[in-house]
Amino acid sequence: MISQNCLHDALSYGKCFTGLGRPADYIPELARVNKHQLGVCIVSLDGEILKEGAYDRPFTIQSISKLVSLILALHDRGGEYLFQDKVGVEPTGDPFNSIIKLETRTRPFNPFINAGAITVASCIEGKDTEERFGRFLTYIRHLCNNDEIYLNENVYLSEKSTGDRNRALAYYLKASGILEGDVEECLDFYFRMCSVDVTALDIANLSAVLANHGTNPFTGENLIEPSCAKALRALMLTCGMYDGSGRFAMKVGFPAKSGVGGGIAAVVVDRMGIGVYGPALDEKGNSIGGIKILEYLAKKLDCSLF
Ligand code: DON
């Protein structure tokens, strides 16, 4: 049992740190938020839902979408092909949008750095971007138990018009024979997936499915192959917080995936999914208040894997 008081204290603790970070501004639309917002939601596998603060405030999912796109690509292409020919499964120790290793290694190190996620996006099947994005939306709505998940048009257009770094990564990947299909179409799909609005409650639901080995804890519906859920949790632990993954494993100690919109999806296997939202980011692009909430909960609930 987790008490509401415990969650309240975790949020209060996290709030002490929001002043130390700042919202992402390389996507101009993301800079237009109150950086002190903070929310948390826990969905436990026995059906209990606890919420505090800005848990229902929408924010764009950003890199947390890389969990969903990876599941779709694994479904379409299989792990053998994807992890052999397209992306690796190793942490980089570099920032999420780094280009430095592409020339020496060709294949992106893992599916969560931008180069890896753009490659993964190019492996998702569909006759055009509409159909591919339609598949993504349908699936994420199931995973988050929410039929009201939509594209945030302003953030999408903001990133599409300024995303030249991702454009550089994608063209490089195409030239190396890694990225499949049309580069601009692939980028358009990737930007759309990153620009879907969600809440901390939504990502707590998604995390609960991963904590429950791929099965929706409320409906009993199997949404992710157990072996795929396991691969995702492993990648989240080693690569989910980018070049902050090692420190996060030490301080918190369970799988998590961040996004520059300020969200973090965190998984306590066999116990609960946690969603946090706080748009003030640290220098690695991870929510600063969100990490502090998770640190607090890991300690109080004694749920570090280590
Ligand atoms: O491609 C980008 O840069 C963003 N749409 C997503 C990056 C991101 O969320 C990294 N996470 N911390």
TrEMBL record:
Binding site for substrate: 63, 114, 159, 166, 190, 242, 260
Top EC category: hydrolase
Catalytic activity: L-glutamine + H2O = L-glutamate + NH4(+)
Keyword entries, A-Z: Acetylation, Hydrolase
InterPro entries given in the database record: Beta-lactam/transpept-like, Glutaminase
Entry's Gene Ontology BP terms: glutamate biosynthetic process; L-glutamine catabolic process
EC numbers, comma separated: 3.5.1.2
Alphabetized Pfam families for the sequence: Glutaminase
KW Magnesium (keyword) present: no
GO molecular function (one): glutaminase activity
Record text on subunit structure and interactions: Homotetramer.
Family: Belongs to the glutaminase family.
NCBIfam families in alphabetical order: Gln_ase
HAMAP family listed in its UniProt record: Glutaminase
Protein name: Glutaminase
